[in-house]
Write a structure and sequence with these properties.
The protein is mostly beta strands. Helices cover 0% and strands 38% of the residues. The chain is built from no helices and 12 strands. The strands form 2 sheets. It has a 7-stranded mixed β-sheet with strand order 2-1-12-11-10-7-8, with no helix packed on it. A hairpin with a 2-residue loop joins strand 10 and strand 11. It is elongated.
Length: 148
């Protein structure tokens, strides 16, 4: 049976062997492919190898599993497929020499934390200028409407 190599964003790798059970992707630490992403399910999707074909199956996830931008419930995989689970992208590759697969996890883009009130914290290197805005004295008439 071929192997699946999970390449994590921190540079570490985990080698997994395909068996008759799917290799589970989920946010639980005990998942074969554990992904820290609050938008994926505890048991999100699974990878299998049967009849000389790699496959992906959604396992009832809340936010869905996507391959190359399209939602999938079960599909065959090809080298270069991009799999989206939550906010995480996994790139699937097949090594044609030994028929092993790799799953490269792309680092998530994380927005900076919001401050209290949702405003941006002040930067000491920038001078903040505040100018009052005076409302217009009268509203201009809409085109084609004559005032009475």
């Amino acid at each position: 049976m071929p192997m699946l190599i999970h390449k994590r964003p921190d540079g570490t790798e985990k080698t997994l062997e395909f068996t008759n059970k799917p290799l589970i992707v989920g946010r639980l630490p005990e998942s074969e492919i554990s992904v820290r992403d609050s938008f994926i399910s505890r048991v999100h999707c699974g990878f299998t190898f049967a009849n000389n074909q790699f496959s992906l199956k959604d396992l009832g996830s809340t936010n869905g599993t996507y391959r190359n931008g399209a939602r999938v419930f079960e599909c065959a995989l090809s080298s270069g497929d991009k799999i989206q689970v939550g906010n995480t992208t996994l790139v699937f590759e097949i090594d044609s020499k030994n028929n092993n697969a790799s799953l490269r996890q792309i680092p998530q883009m994380v927005a900076p934390p919001l401050t209290v009130g949702g405003s941006t914290p002040p930067r000491p290197d920038l001078k903040q200028v505040t100018a009052p805005v005076n409302p217009p004295a009268s509203r201009p008439a809409s085109p084609g409407v004559k005032p009475k």
